[in-house]
Amino acid sequence: MSSRIASSLADFMQHGNPGESVLGVARRSVVTVTSGTSSGTGWVALGNGVVVTSWRTVGFQSEVVLSTEEGRRAAGRVVAVDAERDLAFVLPLEAIGAAPLPLRADPLPRLGEPVTTLIAAPGDTFVTAMAVVCAEGRGGELAALDPDLGARAGRGGSPVIDAAGRVIGVITTARRIGRDALDRARCILPVGLLARDLRALDVPASELGERTLIHRCPGCTEAFSADNDRCESCGILLPHAFETESAGAERVVRDALTALGIVANKARTGPRSWRIHHRALGGDATPSEVTIRLDSAGLQVILRVPLVRVPSANHEPFYRLLLTANDQTSGVCRLSLAGDVVVLSFSEPVSAFASEHDIAAVFHDLVRLADQYRKVLAELFGAEPLRDGSW
Q: Residue 333 and residue 331: Cα distance in Å, rounded?
């Protein structure tokens, strides 16, 4: 970053009322949005308190928690979403004492313009990231920032603020035309492209609270449910708050779950992970939890089933039995420890599965073997059986 640009950014931080910078004022209107186990950045955009954030932050949840850097917290209800553009709008259900940020719809983000983003970080604090607009958005295309914000941008939703303290756009993880996925963390959706959404939400809060949250297919705009993998109207794959760049590997898992009668979108727990409960074919045991994970390169499918807790006594013969089982009876599966829990796992290259039925058959065999080991370890050592993620 040149010294001239750095100087401009330093000047920017000192604008505003005496004793307080523009950013000092702006950060009071930025919030952390927590949805289940995920969190992201949001900011107050309207006088009725509506917060703009990313759809990847809220996912398919309708209830979230909003928290300010100063420690105020409030429940929030998701009142509108746009999965294709990675947008979500949240209505606070109680006052959080934050004024709306001023918006700059025109001019659009300009090439070379110094800007700042405020990004929610763990602990409800905010990271200040300075950048420069390196690509203008034309014809509805997204603009972009330099340098790359990388992992700091999290799930998106952060406001992009100009030198006067106005929001000129929001960080989105939607795809930018002609750019690969690695550029998503620095894409800007200009405020002007939010105008219609904000106008529809600029009504008394009591009216918004009565609205039904609807997710619409990006292909045909028909409403869709999180319980579906594909749109019932046009048949395209529906977006998910979690996604991986390993489309081929993801398809293998999705098709395998479909063969088991399970909706992959509903079972998904992360960008490369799913969790289901499965009973071995023909078995009468209580279903076991199976976690499915793709490695970071999308080359391996890894399945894991919890068996038992490590017993409080007789550790030496217990561990000896585990080692013997790995050598003689577990076959392609492996017994290992995750803390004080014994886990049965299976790992194979994605390319090893010729069809979805191959991996579906592995589920049956893995759970059947898990039932056998669980019974033996409980009977011989009094180990506490485990069948789900409560461990």
A: 5
Phi, psi (degrees; rounded to nearest 5) at 256: -65, -45
The C-alpha atoms of residue 8 and residue 303 are separated, in whole angstroms, by 52
Residue with tokens 């998106």: 156
Q: How far apart are alpha carbons 356 and 255 in whole angstroms?
A: 5
> Among 98, 89, 85, 43, which Cα is nearest to 62's?
89
> Which residues in the chain land under pLDDT 70?
1-20, 122-124, 139-140, 147-153, 174-185, 243-245, 281-284, 356, 389-391
Task: Please answer whether residues 22 and 177 qualify as being in contact, where contact means their C-beta atoms are separated by less than 8 angstroms.
Answer: no
User: Going by C-beta distance under 8 Å and a sequence separation of 6 or more, which residues neighbour residue 29?
Assistant: 43, 44, 98, 99, 100, 101
C-alpha torsion angle, residues 385, 386, 387, 389 (rounded to 10) = 180
- Token pair of 299 as six digits: 């080359």
What is the reported pTM?
0.70
